[in-house]
Specification:
It contains 21 helices and seven strands. α4 links the parallel β4 and β5. α13 crosses α14 and α15 crosses α16. Strands 3-2-1-4-5 form a five-stranded parallel β-sheet, with helices on both faces. It has a two-stranded antiparallel sheet with strand order 6-7. It has three domains: 108 residues, HUPs (Rossmann fold), CATH 3.40.50; 160 residues, Alpha Horseshoe (Serine Threonine Protein Phosphatase 5, Tetratricopeptide repeat), CATH 1.25.40; 174 residues, DNA Cyclobutane Dipyrimidine Photolyase, subunit A, domain 3 (Orthogonal Bundle). It is mainly alpha-helical. It is globular, with a radius of gyration of 23 Å. It holds the Pfam family DPRP. This is Cryptochrome/photolyase family protein.
Length: 497
């Protein structure tokens, strides 16, 4: 009889059970473990817990008699209950902690990672050729495009350009409350969702676990069928409008034309290869413009792959980087996603979206939530943990590079060339959030001063010596000398202590 195969809760698609390229044998029994300790240790968003458990239980139902589904306190306990000391295989997990666990077990054989385009050894070879240079995303993205022949015409990119970023930075349409595109795919809840919600309620009542946020109707796919339907709807009805406004924000239209595919991708319900292939096919059929398709391909085959590889390349200690020396604790209102405790409209709106759905798109994450944390000098490790726990698509491999490296610049520039933060003018240009706000994006001091505008200048002053030597920050830092009210700005906004 074949060794059993262990599926983690983010390895739920059919490609994790195929026998090709080092996968498990077709007749291998399957083990899945629902470990309660995962939810005991940390305070996750309730919608995230619901989504993961719903997806796991659905996959177990699909596998039928082939799977042994165990509910246990820990993964070790569950594996012991399911198999004892019998041999088991598992595809390379997605976190350092999970990899340490499976490697510590004598009866576990670790197979190559799946769910990504680039194998680890291929990335190591690419990175090794650049040992003395920074591993920039744009160079990596072009390499992936060539290797996988994505949006290529021979040796050249289609359209003669690798990157259509310049075409994808439009402000939202003036006066519009939405983009007016067809709505995204939304699943219908069923008895599995009812069972999961019943269990979560019981755990909370018993004081075993505590969650953040609201668990309304499930918004994201929890099965392969639902995930494929979501991909097909995005490509057919929403991809064409994606590119131009991908960096824009509308308060009443939080999903804009974004794909909402990060959650099923990160659960393993979709394979990135099928996502980029579907987008490219739409362009070649004339159903979607190149700027939208390239923007989507760059997110999936560029940024997602880049983040995954850097998580492993930088190693387990990367999460402790704190180049800017930020140590302020996260305030309770942020920990609780208490949007009602916040006066700034952009921050309150974004926090409400996180509280209610466990999701916002990349610009509110980076330029509102992340930028606010950076300007306030919050501990980057705590910020990373918050993003991991409160986003339905948040996993350790996702959030450590995204938050430590990009959002909080805590690695001092190993991943990105500058800190990503701004004053209120950027938010005013790229959103409709400032018009109804109590604060003015043009004001740095006083009762109506925008906390992002004042916070931006205070941040630059606090780290002036470091940032003055960064070519991409030289002009911004020099702007401090032109502020006639700098002393007042620092008095109102400078971090104390």
């Amino acid at each position: 009889m074949a060794d059993a195969h262990w599926l983690f809760g983010d390895q739920l698609g059919p490609h994790f059970l195929t026998a090709d390229a080092g996968g498990p044998r077709p007749d291998a029994p399957v083990v899945m473990i629902e470990a309660r300790s995962v939810f005991r240790r940390r305070r996750f968003h309730r919608a995230k817990a619901h989504l993961i458990l719903s997806a796991m239980r659905r996959r177990a139902a699909e596998l039928g008699d082939r799977v042994r589904y165990v509910r246990a306190e820990t993964y070790r306990d569950g594996l012991q209950e399911a198999l004892g000391t019998a041999r088991v295989t598992v595809h390379h997990p997605t976190s350092h902690a999970a990899l340490r666990l499976v490697r510590s077990l004598d009866n576990v054989t670790v197979l190559p990672a799946r769910g990504f385009l680039v194998p680890h050894d291929a990335f190591r070879s690419w990175a090794g050729d650049r040992a003395r240079r920074q591993l920039r995303q744009e160079e990596f993205y072009r390499w992936v495009r060539r290797e996988h022949e994505l949006l290529m015409e021979g040796a050249e990119p289609v359209g003669g350009r690798w990157n259509f970023d310049h075409d994808n930075r439009a402000s939202p349409p003036r006066g519009a409350s939405s983009l007016g595109v067809p709505s995204p795919y939304r699943p219908h809840e069923d008895s599995v969702d009812d069972e999961v919600r019943h269990d979560l309620d019981a755990w909370e009542r018993a004081g075993e676990v505590s969650f953040v946020g609201r668990d309304g109707p499930r918004l994201f796919p929890a099965s392969r069928r639902e995930a494929v339907a979501a991909l097909e709807r995005f490509v057919a009805h929403r991809l064409s409008a994606f590119g131009t406004y991908e960096d824009a924000v509308l308060s009443a239209d939080p999903v804009m034309s974004h794909s909402l595919l990060s959650a099923p991708l990160n659960l393993g319900l979709l394979d990135p290869a099928e996502c980029v292939a579907a987008a490219e096919a739409a362009w070649r059929a004339g159903a979607a413009p190149l700027n939208s398709v390239e923007g989507f391909v760059r997110q999936v085959a560029g940024w997602r792959e880049y983040v995954w590889q850097l998580y492993w390349h930088f190693g387990v200690d990367y999460r402790t980087n704190n180049a800017l020396g930020h140590t302020a604790p996260l305030p309770q209102w942020f920990l609780d996603a208490d949007a009602d405790a916040v006066e700034a409209n952009c921050l309150a709106t974004t926090l409400a979206q996180v509280r209610d759905t466990g999701w916002t798109h990349h610009i509110p994450r980076l330029m509102i939530l992340g930028s606010h944390a950076l300007q306030r000098g919050w501990d980057p490790a705590a910020v990373t943990d918050w993003f991991h726990r409160l986003f339905v698509d948040g996993y350790d491999w996702v959030m450590v590079p995204n938050v430590v490296g990009m959002s909080q610049y805590a690695d001092g520039g190993r991943m990105t060339t500058k800190p990503y933060t701004s004053g209120g003018a950027y938010l005013h240009r790229m959103s409709d959030l400032c018009g109804s706000c109590a604060f003015r994006p043009t004001e740095r001091v006083g009762a109506r001063a925008c906390p992002f505008t004042g916070g931006y200048w205070a941040f630059l002053h606090r780290h002036r010596d470091r940032l003055a030597h960064n070519p991409r920050m030289t002009r911004a830092v020099a702007g401090l000398d032109r502020l006639s009210d700098l002393e007042e700005v620092l008095e109102q906004w400078q971090i104390k202590g």
